[in-house]
Design brief:
Elements: H1 3-6, E1 11-15, H2 17-22, E2 23-33, H3 37-44, E3 48-49, E4 54-58, E5 61-65, E6 68-69, E7 86-89, H4 92-103, E8 107-117, E9 120-130, H5 133-160
Antiparallel strand pairs: 1-8, 2-7, 2-9, 3-6, 4-5, 5-7, 8-9
């Protein structure tokens, strides 16, 4: 099953593109998110930023920090705080897996994207290790080479026609 098929019915709310650049993602886990009503309404209009967000495990529970969900424009005095710490909904064995990964040197939990699945907000968490500068350069170089090869292939197909 391809990635495109997996996200066929899902509406992507926000993506953390910088995460794939800054971290080498080893494993991906899907988690639910505990939200208030105004947060969900704000997410439906696409008002979320995941730039500096990260997840952590504390007291046997997982939390997501620094996720910015803008205040709902039509909210009242009961509107939510934009950068509050939000609880992640995971099975106990998944939380233990995340805690074990974080205890290893250099690993961290980074949210890569947020999306709706059947009306529920899900967060895709990547367990990864920070890349060094030379690793980032190698990734960029590899991406450029793939892009050039694709362009050459496309040009050669046009010439044959």
């Amino acid at each position: 099953m391809s990635k495109k098929d997996a996200n066929a019915g899902n509406k992507i709310i926000a993506q953390n593109r910088d995460a794939r650049h800054r971290f080498e993602i080893k494993e991906i886990v899907e988690a639910g998110l505990v939200l208030t009503g105004t947060e969900v309404k704000s997410l439906r209009s696409g008002k979320a930023q995941m730039a500096d967000s990260f997840a952590f495990v504390k007291g046997g529970e997982a939390y997501l920090s620094h996720l910015h969900i803008s205040e709902y424009t039509h909210g009242n005095r009961e509107n939510h705080v934009p950068t509050r710490v939000r609880k992640l909904l995971l099975h106990k064995h998944q939380i233990e897996q995340l805690a074990a990964a974080v205890n290893e040197k250099g690993f961290t939990i980074v949210p890569t994207q947020m999306y709706f699945v059947k009306g529920r907000v899900k967060v895709e968490l990547g367990i990864g290790r920070g890349k060094k500068l030379h690793d980032k350069r190698a990734s960029i170089k590899e991406k450029d080479v793939k892009k050039e090869l694709a362009q050459l292939k496309k040009r050669s197909l046009k010439v044959r026609e």
